[in-house]
């Protein structure tokens, strides 16, 4: 979006040319065009082919809006600075149409003694440069802040995920410990059961359950083994007869 009086850059025959916007209109197909003065002639140029002229701060004697005198022909003519470039000023002559605005070299422009240039405005290029540097630094800091916030958010998500994994691991360890203890208890019960079963087996044949005791020693055996024993195999006492016994 350009305005009347803006300096723009257009490309002609492979080179960039500076020009000044004189007007605007909408051409065929509702295409916006600007009337641009460049190279000593005016032409309607499509908006998309123009670039805004963004010069770096220029340290010159005069700045925009300063009133000056310009050598024109054989005399001096009062004018106002419209734009400043490294080597030229775009000036508007007092009492003339904007169509007469032209770029003139710095050496053709003199100070207008009737107009005192504000010392603060003389320092404006330096201030503009400082502002531009601050804007660049501000943008850089904003970009860095955005990156830092993104990294922080990612780190927080990762931290939450790690905490959740740690909690699940602790729960798994707790369940595993409970399962291990339960298995140990089952094994203990089975072992006790086996001991009880084994305690009722005959110590001679190790197969049949005991169902009688020898008299007089009282050691127990199965009836099949007891009737064949003359002496108790445990205490070596002579047995009289087996006495049947019953488990509770």
Describe the protein's architecture and organization.
Among the domains are: 66-111, SH3 type barrels, CATH 2.30.30.140; 126-190; 200-244, Herpes Virus-1. The protein is built from three helices and 13 strands. The protein has helices at 119-122, 124-199, 223-226; strands at 7-12, 15-26, 32-38, 41-46, 51-52, 67-72, 75-84, 88-93, 102-105, 109-111, 212-215, 220-221, 241-244. It is rod-shaped, with a radius of gyration of 55 Å. The model has no long low-confidence stretch (mean pLDDT 82). GO terms for molecular function: zinc ion binding. Keywords: Coiled coil, Metal-binding, Zinc, Zinc-finger. This is RING-type domain-containing protein.
Helicity range? 25-40%
- Report the sheet-strand fraction: 25-35%
Unreliable residue stretches: none
Mean pLDDT: 82
Instruction: Give a count of the beta strands, DSSP E runs of length 2 or more.
Output: 13
Q: What's the tally of helices?
A: 3
Helix-strand makeup class: alpha+beta
Please state the CA-atom Rg, rounded to the nearest Å. 55 Å
Strand order of the largest sheet: 4-3-2-1-5
Termini separation comes to 109 Å
Oligomeric state of the chains present here: single chain
Indicate the overall shape: rod-shaped
User: What string, H for helix and E for strand, traces the elements in order?
Assistant: EEEEEEEEEEHHEEHE
Strand count, sense and barrel status of the largest sheet are:
5 strands, antiparallel
């Amino acid at each position: 979006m350009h305005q009347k009086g803006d300096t723009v850059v257009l490309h002609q025959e492979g080179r960039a040319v500076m020009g000044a916007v004189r007007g605007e209109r909408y051409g065929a197909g509702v295409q916006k065009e600007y009337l641009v003065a460049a190279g000593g002639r005016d032409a309607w140029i499509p908006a998309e082919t123009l670039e805004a002229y963004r010069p770096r701060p220029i340290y010159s004697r005069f700045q925009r809006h300063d009133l000056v005198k310009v050598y024109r022909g054989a005399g001096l003519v009062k004018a106002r600075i419209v734009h400043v470039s490294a080597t030229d000023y775009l000036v508007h002559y007092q009492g003339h149409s904007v169509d007469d605005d032209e770029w003139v070299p710095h050496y053709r422009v003199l100070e207008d003694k009737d107009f005192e240039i504000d010392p603060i405005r003389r320092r404006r290029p330096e201030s503009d440069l400082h502002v531009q540097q601050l804007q660049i630094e501000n943008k850089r800091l904003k970009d860095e802040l955005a990156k830092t916030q993104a990294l922080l958010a990612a780190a927080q998500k990762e931290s939450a995920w790690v905490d959740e994994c740690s909690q699940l691991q602790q729960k798994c360890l707790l369940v595993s410990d409970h399962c291990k203890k339960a298995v140990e208890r089952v094994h203990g019960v089975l072992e006790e059961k086996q001991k009880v079963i084994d305690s009722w087996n005959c110590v001679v044949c190790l197969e049949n359950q005991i169902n009688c005791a020898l008299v007089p020693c009282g050691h127990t055996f199965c009836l099949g083994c007891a009737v064949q024993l003359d002496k108790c195999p445990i205490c070596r006492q002579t047995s009289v007869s087996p006495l049947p016994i019953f488990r509770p």
